[in-house]
Amino acid sequence: MNVLAALFLAATVALLTGCGGESKSDKSEADSISAPLNEITKLGEIPSIMSEGLTEEEKAELRDQIMPGGVGDVKAAEEKFKALMADARAGDPAAQNSLGVMYYTGEAVSKTLSGQVLNTDPELAAGWFFRAAEQGYADAQFNLGLMYANGEGVPQDLTQAAELFKSAAEQGHVDAQNNLGAMYFTGEGVDRDEKKAVEWFKKAAAQGNEDAQANLDAIKASGK
Asked: InterPro entries, per this entry (predicted)?
């Protein structure tokens, strides 16, 4: 997965209580599992999920491998953006997704019809993610799923978010697998199904996702 082309969500399970309230055991189980957390990865940065445990030398080597040329060089960055825009308009899903990230994080500047400069543009970001997601691009499906889940740039729609996560998860997108597991566990956007939740957590954990493994451990500790 291109780490520059993803909005990373370390989604762990947050248990929901029913209308009848929660028992003491239910509360203990809920307290043992942390709530979802977002991490937005900007151009020029290495996601913490990728750099954890690396030495500074290893981080520098990784940065050279994954960072685009021109970061820190304004003129080169402008030329890169123009080329990226051309590729995106030509239908390249990777470029479309990368543009979405740039507009979401504020790396790319946009303006309203009245000329007001926007620091970030989630609506434009969602539009580019949508174009790439339509082509089956897993990172874009995941990113657009996050936007639907959070109601950013698009109306909040957990059902749509779950569908997008599933599309990405079926292609092996590890964060989408973990998120989908979380949604099945809580019943958000899908019918609650603990068996399916565990299946997706296992798929993500098998790829080294620590949050998914933590979710599996929490479920096991609860005796389920």
From this structure: Sel1-like (IPR006597), Sel1_AlgK (IPR050767), TPR-like_helical_dom_sf (IPR011990)
